[in-house]
Specification:
Length: about 400
């Protein structure tokens, strides 16, 4: 077979080009640290890399959602702290208002201070989250969720809570309606109240539970009578008579009714009534403060009426504070959970990065050795080509 000079040149150039390309690939891998530059380099490995990248992206998205939830819960926890401080301040003012030496003007000043605190509480309830939303907007609200309407503060949000879009449920908002408008009323078990038609000479305390196993859940009434033997009382259960009838009244002595204990003080008039009704989720912090303001602003009230106002106000403020403290505790639990979730997200991202590295990263020692080998092969091919060039007939004649 005849081998022409042209064929020898072409073969040498082809070899030189192949070895130059191989050396370039090895150099590219050495510089990038990756053995897969394109899917055709290793289809299976490229698929593993894509799956790992998808898990990394999901972990990054979950981390962003977690940070959004954490920031919102920190803001909500701070708002609960501010609201609790206001409740404590209001409680101190109410205690002052119970001073029998205070005049109507002084109590009216206290009522004005309470009105200012009530307005501050409304501002806290409508506090924004810094991104156009509302901390207590529940599942979303285009405008401030609480509205100061003529009939009292109303909630315009949707009940529930908005959740972050992540693998684990993390809240972005709190349900303000549950916190500020639907607290557990009374002492948590029952609610005491004086009838509106009572004479202004007696009052009832907030009551307590003396025997939880004896509680019936029915409403009761304590009805007072005046007779020749003095002041007596009878207890009605759901409107019907009970065994407690014509009992002599002693101011300050506990009245025990089916596991419930209350104390009436003062001088009840004939026909005065005091009710005990089961507690419900209907306590509005704003309505309670509005009642305090209205009653403390009213002139010419008796000492018993002021005492009743103070007793009821303290009971309602304590119940409202309990609701706020309960929400603050829940927010603390959510913040603790975000720390645990953050750890799991970091672990998932590290696992994805490890798998991606195993699929696409090169062994640096092997890469350096491969580049050196291919560089040597290229140099050898280059020298061979230079020698083939000298085999030309013209060089021989010359």
């Amino acid at each position: 077979m005849r081998v022409t000079t042209s064929n020898s040149f072409n073969r040498s150039i082809d070899t030189l080009q192949r070895r130059a390309a191989a050396m370039s690939d090895a150099q590219e891998q050495l510089i990038s640290g990756k053995r897969i530059a394109r899917a055709s380099d290793d289809p299976s490995g490229a698929a593993r890399v894509e799956r790992a990248l998808a898990r990394e992206a999901r972990a990054d998205a979950s981390q962003r959602a977690l940070e959004a939830s954490r920031n919102a819960m920190v803001l909500a926890e701070g708002a609960m702290g501010d609201a609790s401080d206001l409740i404590h301040q209001a409680r101190e003012l109410v205690v002052q208002a119970g001073n029998p030496a205070y005049s109507d003007a002084q109590r009216k000043d206290i009522a004005s201070a309470l009105k200012g605190m009530r307005d501050q509480m409304l501002q806290i309830a409508n506090r924004g989250d810094g991104s156009g939303g509302w901390i207590f907007g529940a599942q979303g609200s285009a405008s401030p969720p609480f509205v100061d309407a003529p009939g009292g503060v109303q909630y315009r949000g949707t009940q529930g809570a908005s959740m972050a879009a992540s693998d684990e449920p993390l809240p972005l908002t709190s349900d303000g309606g549950e916190i500020f408008l639907r607290g557990l009323s009374g002492n948590g078990t029952f609610v005491t109240a004086a009838d509106a038609a009572n004479a202004p000479n007696a009052w009832i305390d907030g009551g307590s539970v003396s025997d939880p196993s004896a509680i019936t859940g029915d409403p009761y009434e304590i009805v007072f009578s005046q007779g020749t033997s003095g002041t007596t009382y009878a207890v009605l259960r759901a409107g019907g008579a009970t065994a407690i009838s014509a009992q002599p009244y002693e101011a300050g002595k506990s009245i025990e009714i089916d596991g419930l204990s209350v104390t009436v003080q003062g001088t009840p008039a004939d026909g005065d009534r005091f009710t005990l009704t089961p507690a419900g989720r209907d306590l509005s912090v704003f309505d309670a403060m509005d009642r305090m303001v209205a009653e403390l602003s009213a002139p010419n009230r008796s000492g018993a009426q002021h005492t009743q106002t103070v007793q009821t106000a303290l009971r309602d403020l304590d119940a409202g504070l309990s609701s706020l403290v309960g929400e603050r505790s829940r927010l603390g639990e959510v913040l603790n959970r975000t720390d645990s979730v953050e750890g799991r997200i970091a672990d998932a991202k590290l696992l994805a990065q490890t798998e991606r590295s195993a699929a696409e990263d090169i062994d640096m020692v092997e890469a350096v050795s491969s580049f050196s080998t291919r560089q040597t092969s290229y140099d050898a091919a280059l020298k061979a080509y230079s020698m083939v060039q000298k085999l030309s007939l013209f060089d021989y004649i010359r």
